[in-house]
Amino acid sequence: GIQVEQSPPDLILQEGANSTLRCNFSDSVNNLQWFHQNPWGQLINLFYIPSGTKQNGRLSATTVATERYSLLYISSSQTTDSGVYFCAVVLSGNTGKLIFGQGTTLQVKP
Amino acid sequence: DTGVSQDPRHKITKRGQNVTFRCDPISEHNRLYWYRQTLGQGPEFLTYFQNEAQLEKSRLLSDRFSAERPKGSFSTLEIQRTEQGDSAMYLCASSISGSQYFGPGTRLTVT
């Protein structure tokens, strides 16, 4: 089956720093989403980005579908950015089920 | 738009008992998904409904698990004869197309 790999697995930043999280996938996909899971377990939608670039405030994401990767940029990080970031993909011709990576755990220190 | 809701938020049960969880999707969302997440892992797909039809089930969904979505609105996930390995966060998501939106989850602990 498809492999979804996220890197790095863990990341520690000082408040105000920038970071880039990467998601590689091994097959063609119809859809890619980025989520932030808060300490209470809630998955919060960040981006729906099967291709191209999107920005939302301090966050932006780029997906290069032909090269099978996506990047999530966090600028001027804040302590509230801490948590686990997941990318998830939907295979072409699928029912829409999401296949998640293992996540990147981000800790932002004040 | 009130978001996806799940009930209960937490459930502690003894091994061998049956449990049932409920998910209320965003209204007008015809697609509903159940996922399971264990500690340190990403969520894993369990089953998918389009309206009231259950169209896909993961092999993770053993015969002790059953899911329904009567009338294509809310959904229930039942686990019979719970085992300690069933301890996990059970997540529900809904969509109409494109993005899936997740509920807060039900955390199950089997003692």
What order do the helices and strands come in, and which of them pair?
The complex is a heterodimer of chains A (110) and B (111).
Chain A: E1 4-7, E2 10-14, E3 19-25, E4 29-37, E5 43-48, E6 52-56, E7 59-64, E8 69-74, E9 83-91, E10 99-100, E11 104-109
Parallel strand pairs in A: 2-11
Antiparallel strand pairs in A: 1-3, 3-8, 4-5, 4-9, 6-7, 7-8, 9-10, 9-11
Chain B: E1 5-7, E2 10-13, E3 19-24, E4 31-37, E5 44-50, E6 53-57, E7 65-68, E8 75-79, E9 88-95, E10 101-102, E11 106-110
Parallel strand pairs in B: 2-11
Antiparallel strand pairs in B: 1-3, 3-8, 4-5, 4-9, 5-6, 7-8, 9-10, 9-11
Radius of gyration of chain A: 13 Å
Average of per-residue pLDDT values of chain A: 95
Structural class of the helix and strand makeup of chain B? mainly beta
Determine the strand fraction of chain B and express it as a percent band: over 45%
What general outline of chain B do the C-alpha atoms trace? globular
The stretches of 5 or more residues of chain A where confidence is low (pLDDT under 50) are none
Helix content of chain B: under 10%
Which stretches of chain B are low in confidence, meaning pLDDT under 50 for 5 or more residues running?
Answer: none
Number of helices of chain B: 0
Alpha plus pi helix count of chain A: 0
Q: Portion of residues in helices of chain A? A: under 10%
Mean pLDDT level of chain B: 95
Please give the most extensive interface between any two protein chains, plus how many residues each contributes.
A-B, 21 and 25 residues
Largest sheet data of chain A:
6 strands, mixed
Beta-strand residue fraction of chain A: over 45%
